[in-house]
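pasting for the record
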Amino acid sequence: MSFDFDVSIIGGGPIGSTIAYYLSKRGLSVCIIEKKKEIGYPLQCAGILSKKIFDLNELPDEVIINKVKGAFIHSQNHILNVEKDADEAYVIDRIGYDKFLFNRAVQNGASLINQKAVDFDIENAIVHLSDNQKIKSKVIVGCDGHNSILSKQMGNAVDSFNATQFLVEISDESIMSFRNSDKLISNYVDTCILEEILPGFLWVIPTNEDSYRIGLFSKDSHKSQELILQDYLNEHFEFEIKEKFKGFIPIFNDKNRLVKDKAILIGDAASQVKPTSGGGLLIGFDACKMACECILEAIEKDFPEILKEYERNFFKKYSKEFNYQIKVQKSFNLFTKEDFDYLFIKLKDNDCERIISEFGDMDEQSILVKEFIKRGLIFKIVPTFLFKKVGKIFGF
């Protein structure tokens, strides 16, 4: 039987480009099927990665535009200040990074097919393109984003949050006032909890001296999100909007399949994102490593059933962490803005800024949750009338 490629990858974003690079480097013939004329556009990401990126992928210096070591966390009337001893995260030029990953894949042998994938025969690993071409391979890898056609064809339920972000110039005085700080700190981000957009939140990420990415995610329409952001800016800052972006964040669903027949899903197409923050790039990069080994073995042994090991390995590694984050998300959904103010006061009273600074982890948030439970802090910080409901969520 003849094949056009060993592997067809749907989508040339950072996840598709990364798995294409891994497979090409290991000697497989790979095509990237990408409908966009220019990689990286439009920007659909806050563009901040934890320091663990270096364990999972390359990050060239030229795409790093700021380094982050702390955060201000805002309720309506109170602010928590948490800080690490060293850089904890990197603000990146996401468009530049996407292009770097794509070019790396092509330079290592991946072929680009600049067409849209419109249909799939996953049993026979055939991709139907918008120009009526058919591409036959041994495995199809779906990296086609939150609204993945391949995921739907595999029988999965696809759902997502909307996300809106502005690139904004903000005066030094107003950012200091917003943080209740007497000095400008350029290596801190801000996370703002707003009752009306839960379970989402609003972020303020510094990119350079006076430029910030300010965005949010929620179930609101993009139009409504723009109004929320505009109102928030008007209330807190002297500012000038330079650019506007909109995108989507998939909602994790542990009932969705990652593998069916000769097709697998990675990244947003597989809803591989943190339930609390919607961040998924590092998880997707890790999934690429898992998937690569299974694809290589499945092709070498001509036994597609091996692909299912990828799904088992992924859920074995991430299910517990995601479950903790879902519990946190469900608990926060019970809170009003007054409850969050109460929570922040109690967090300050119980030295929790120090504990969050020590145990907080952008990627493994369960570490901090477990520490709070071990110290009995849940009993001290949650409003009394909500404790039974929160306790039920966490099972105590």
